[in-house]
Amino acid sequence: MAVVLFLCASLTLTHCSDKGGDGPAPPNPCSETALAVTTTPAVNSSDKVQVEADLPVTINITAGFPAGGATLDITAKNEANNVQFFANSSSLTTSGVHNITITQTPPNSTAIVQITVTSKNCASNKWTGTFRYKRK
After folding, report:
1. In a domain, 59, yes or no
2. What is the DSSP code (8-state) at residue 80?
3. What is the pTM of this model?
4. How far apart are CA 106 and CA 24, in angstroms?
5. Which residue of 20, 33, 108, 134 pairs with 64 in a disulfide if CB–CB is 3.0 to 4.6 A?
6. What number is the average pLDDT over the span 96-111?
7. Is residue 2 part of a domain?
8. At CB < 8 A and 24+ separation, what contacts does 38-45 make?
């Protein structure tokens, strides 16, 4: 009798521990329209030469702005030594044009700028672009 109970319990535990894994993938919780962004200087450009320490940047969110808003993050670092010299994070409530000025660009350097716009409601709805510029 004990052997029968042991076998029943073993079979029950084995059957209940099956993790499945063959079912459908969970639905995507993010149903927002993808963000579309343009920038000046343009993403993937590297020909901008800047004489001053400050560089004006225009970010234009042209489509997909989420109803809950977005976060705009900008970083700039020296390409030669990878040292970040500028960072800005802004909470956005509207689409359209947003102007930021990158400051304190080191002289005689090439800078890499990364711009990221992320939905506040859906972290997977994210746009990222980079560009380079030189300061004399």
Report:
1. yes
2. T
3. 0.77
4. 52
5. 33
6. 95
7. no
8. 38/62, 39/115, 39/129, 39/131, 41/131, 41/133, 42/131, 43/115, 43/129, 43/130, 43/131, 44/129, 44/130, 44/131, 45/131, 45/132
